[in-house]
Amino acid sequence: MAGKVFFSVSMSLDGFIAPESPEDLMGQQWMELQQWVFRQRFFRENLKLGEGGEEGRDNDIVRETFERTGASVLGKRMFDAGEGAWPEDPPFHTPVFVVTHEERDPWERQGGTTFYFVNDGIESALDRAREAAGEQDVRIAGGGETIVQYLNAGLIDEFHVALSPVLFGSGIRLFEGVEAGRVALDLVSAEPSPSTTHLNYTVHPR
User: Fold this and answer.
1) InterPro entries annotated for this entry (predicted)?
2) DSSP per-residue string spanning 109-124
3) Which of 9, 24, 62, 170 is deepest in the core (most CB within 10 A)?
């Protein structure tokens, strides 16, 4: 049985998931947005950031998201931002399919992460990711434009938003360009924690 297609992101209260400029990734605003993740024990161990970290429901959600993912899909903009920032053992530990117009040989990294570059569209990238994931799920890992492309194409089954108590004012909006008349959502759960609020939705055609 094929797995689901999902995305999981942190979002500010005013709807942004990243700063406008890739140069501002890892800046103060972005770190505040992602602060709840960096505190978690599983995340710290996965990225080899050192011992310690919080345990509890937030940590469980980070671990469950990682464990359900058999392959990931990335947009070229997000890949470009991460290529120079990720360590030799990137955080994916799965095959990653990069939607791009560029022709490039696969880029194998440590920890089971290999980046494959797909230049014939989002559906082709998803088909390859599904095949690689087997019965596990495929995560559309970002960025915002890529997530919206998959939403508009009716290819997302469900998603998780961690609503962080920060304001951006500007940047990359999660749902910028979404064809709202074609996308309907059902709220599955809303789960607050001391650092964020976890919102889970299923997606179906309107």
Assistant:
1) DHFR-like_dom_sf, RibDG_C, Riboflavin_Biosynth_HTPR
2) -GGG-EEEEE-S-HHH
3) 62
